[in-house]
Amino acid sequence: MAWAYTLALLFFSALAAAKDLYKILDIHPSASKTDVRHAYKKLSRKYHPDKNQDPAAKDKFVDIAYAYEVLSDEEKRQVYDRHGEEGLKAHEGGQTQHANPFDMFSNFFGGGYASPQTRRGPTSLTEFEVELSDIYKGASIDFMIKKRILCDHCRGSGAASDKDIHTCSGCGGSGVKLVKQQIFPGMFAQSQTTCNECGGRGKIIHKKCPHCDGMKVVDYTAHYTLEVIPGMPEGHEVVFEGEGDESPDWEAGDVILRVRSRRDKGSWRRKESSLYWRETIGIDEALLGFDRNLTHLDGHEVRLIRKGPTQPGFVQKIEGEGMPLFENRNLHGDLFVEYNVVLPIQLSPQQRRKLSEAFQTESNHDEL
Q1: What residue intervals correspond to the zinc fingers (CR-type) (predicted)?
Q2: Which phi-psi region, left, alpha or beta, contains residue 214 (left: φ > 0; alpha: ψ -120 to 50)?
C-alpha cells in the first residue's frame, strides 16, 4: 500500500503545481486559449519593467511569461495539467531553457512596448450607470464587452501558416510600384503608386487562415470587473488600458467607463457629497411631531426626530449622513431630508383622538 500512498502524494502535488501557473495568470484551469492570451496581454503590460517600477515587477513579469509559454501551448498544457511542472521538465528532456520574456512580449505586441509614436487604435467611452447604494458602500461589478482580438491561430497574419505568406512578386515586398509616364516624346516622368497586387502590404497570402477567414481578427466577449470606490464622483472615468479592439495595424486603444449613479424616481438623490431624501408624513405627525427611523443606503438606521409642527417642504439637515468623501472616506457629507405632508381625505379615529388630546391639552394650558 506504500506505493499507492506515494502515488497519491505525487498526484496531489502535481495538481497543486498545475494550479500555480493558472494562479499566476489569474484564470481558471478550464480557461480557453483565448482567455489565456487575454490574461497574458493584461498582466504583461501591467508588470512590464519599463512601466512598473516596483522592484518585484520584473520577477512577476518573468513568471507571467513562463505561465503563458506553457498554457498557450496545447501539448505543454496537457502535460502540465496531468503531471505538474516536474512532468513538464521530464517531457522536455530535463531542459529548463525558456523563451526570453522580453522577446515573447515583443513578438506578442508586434514590436514591443508602445512608444509615443506608435499608432493607437480607437478608444471607446461608455456611460456606465450603477446603483447609488454601490457608490455609497463600494462594490465590485462584473460586466462584459464585445470586441475584436487578434486571431489565436494566425496571430493576426491572416494566413493559414507562415508558409502561406509570400513576398509580393509585383513590388518585391516594398508595397509600391514605380510607374513611368511619357510626357513628351523622349521625356518620361517616374512616380510611385501603391502595388495593386498586394494592396501595399508587400506580402501575398496564398491560403487564408481557416479560423478568421483571412480577416486577422475575431469577435470576442471579454469579462471585466469595475471596482466602485465609496464616494466616487459622478462622471468619474475608469480606464481599462489597452483593452480596446485589436488589430495588427495598431496598438489597442483604451476602454473608458464614465460612472454615474442610476436615477430612480422617488428615491435617493445625490449632489456631490450631499444626499437628499423626501420623507412623507401625515397631518398628525406634521402638527404634533414624530420620532421615526430612515433606512440608509447601506442599511443602517438614521433617526428622524421633530418636536412640534413641521411645515410642508421643510428641509432638515443631518450632518455626517451624506456620501463618503472620495479623497477621505472617513469623512461624510450631509443628508438633507425634505418633508412632504399628506392631508388625508378623512381622519381616522386614532388621528382624531391624538389631535383632540393635543388641542385639549393646549386649551387647558391657555386657561391656566
Answers
A1: 138-221
A2: left
- Cα separation, 368 vs 116, in Å, equals 88
The residue whose grid cell reads 405632508 is 341
Residue reference for cell 525558456: 98
Q: Which long-range contacts (CB under 8 A, 24 or more apart) does 137-143 make?
A: 137/230, 137/297, 137/298, 138/228, 138/229, 138/230, 139/228, 140/225, 140/226, 140/227, 140/228, 141/225, 141/226, 141/228, 142/223, 142/224, 142/225, 142/226, 143/223, 143/224, 143/225, 143/226
For residue 345, pLDDT beyond 90: no
Residue 335 has what pLDDT? 92
| Alpha-carbon span 334 to 317, nearest angstrom | 7
In this predicted structure, the answer to whether residue 86 has a pLDDT above a threshold of 80 is: no
Q: If phi over 0 gives left and psi between -120 and 50 gives alpha, with beta otherwise, what is residue 94?
A: left
**Residue 102, C-alpha cell as written in the block:** 522580453
What pLDDT was estimated at residue 257? 92
- Is residue 90 a contact partner of residue 50, using CB atoms and an 8 Å limit? no
Single-letter amino acid, residue 242: G
How far apart, in whole angstroms, are the C-alpha atoms of residue 211 and residue 33?
14
Q: Can you read off the three cell numbers belonging to residue 89?
A: 521538465
Q: How many CA atoms are closer than 13 Å to the CA of 367, on its beta-carbon side?
A: 6
Q: What is the enclosing helix (H) or strand (E) of 349?
A: helix 349-367
> CA 119, CA 211: separation in Å to the nearest integer?
26
**pLDDT tens for residues 90-112?**
766 655 567 787 777 776 765 44
* pTM greater than the 0.85 cutoff: no
Tens-digit pLDDT profile for residues 30-66:
877 777 887 887 788 788 888 788 888 888 888 888 8
Q: Are 121 and 150 in contact (CB under 8 A)?
A: no
Tens-digit pLDDT profile for residues 233-284: 999 998 888 888 888 878 888 889 999 988 876 678 999 989 999 988 887 7
Chain centroid to CA 68:
21
